[in-house]
Design a protein that fits this description.
Elements lengths: L4 H13 L24 E5 L4 H6 L6 H12 L7 E5 L13 H18 L3 E5 L1 H4 L8 H4 L4 E3 L2 E6 L2 H6 L2 H11 L1 H13 L80
Parallel strand pairs: 1-2, 1-3, 3-5
Antiparallel strand pairs: 4-5
């Protein structure tokens, strides 16, 4: 009988590892469930594993992963504080885009991870993870904006791989990630007083939720402005890190063809 969140994560990993719900199970080397503290306040969701991720069974271990570490640093965070996973848990052949049936096959795993970790803030990296909350939206229009959905703050951002293709996006990503400390602080306060929360929009006004108090509107085209303060540590303390189991038009798949990092983050991994 599963009684703890760690046991839930372990069981989810075993299911993902042995998953045969779609044809990607025939071509993968390793499934890549995800990793990070199960009490993380921030969850980053990418697209799919690439070549190096498929070899190592870990998310974001190539050049895009190295840049993700830099982006997290701009937010006052370390990789050890953040839960990282992908929409797909297996690498698509030749790093092609995820197919709808593959996304559907993995959807429950991602939902279980969201339920298990229960992050305050979800950062979607690229158009495929963004589409879970923002279907039919253009990432070039809404990147860096904030919306509260089901008591959780969702922040769509470009995929780090997009900056490897288009240098001008590097500073855009750094600027967007620099807003995260303020967003996290805002989300903490909102979760403590749920009756007074609303969603923050990049457009002409907040998108209201039932029973919510109004949040001051943000002008069209402007960055979402929330109080910025350093995030020194997760609100839940400093628990051990567990490996949980279960790009935009330019982002596509560069991350998945990049060489692996040599200075990988050391973590307690349930699937070693």
């Amino acid at each position: 009988m599963i009684t703890t969140i760690e046991e839930r994560a372990t069981e989810l990993y075993h299911v993902v590892r042995a998953c045969g719900l779609c044809a990607l199970s025939d071509t993968r080397t390793n499934a890549v469930p995800g990793e990070g503290p199960l009490t993380a306040e921030v969850m980053c969701i990418g697209e799919a594993p690439g070549m190096n991720e498929d070899k190592l069974g870990r998310p974001f271990v190539g050049a895009a992963g190295q840049f993700l570490g830099e982006l997290l640093g701009a937010a006052g965070l370390t990789r050890e504080q953040v839960y990282i996973c992908n929409v797909l848990k297996c690498r698509p052949p030749a790093n092609r885009d995820p197919l709808p049936d593959e996304i559907d096959a993995c959807a429950e795993y991602l939902d279980l991870q969201l339920d298990m970790v229960d992050p305050l803030v979800v950062v979607t990296l690229g158009r495929f993870s963004m589409a879970k909350w923002f279907p039919q939206q253009a990432i070039s229009r809404i990147h860096g904006s904030v919306k509260e959905i089901d008591g959780r703050f969702i922040v769509p951002m470009y995929h780090p791989a997009a900056a490897l293709h288009q240098g001008s996006l590097r500073q855009v990503l750094l600027d967007d990630f620099a807003k995260l400390p303020g967003i996290v602080n805002h989300a903490r306060r909102a979760r403590q007083t749920p009756a007074a929360t609303g969603s923050v929009s990049k457009g002409g006004g907040p998108e209201r939720v039932a029973g919510s108090a109004e949040v001051p509107p943000t002008p069209v085209g402007a960055a979402t402005e929330l109080p910025v303060a350093a995030v020194n540590s997760p609100a839940h303390g400093s628990p051990p890190t567990f490996a949980a189991h279960a790009a935009n038009e330019q982002e596509l798949t560069a991350e998945r063809a990049e060489p692996a990092l040599t200075d990988k983050t050391e973590q307690i991994r349930l699937f070693d």
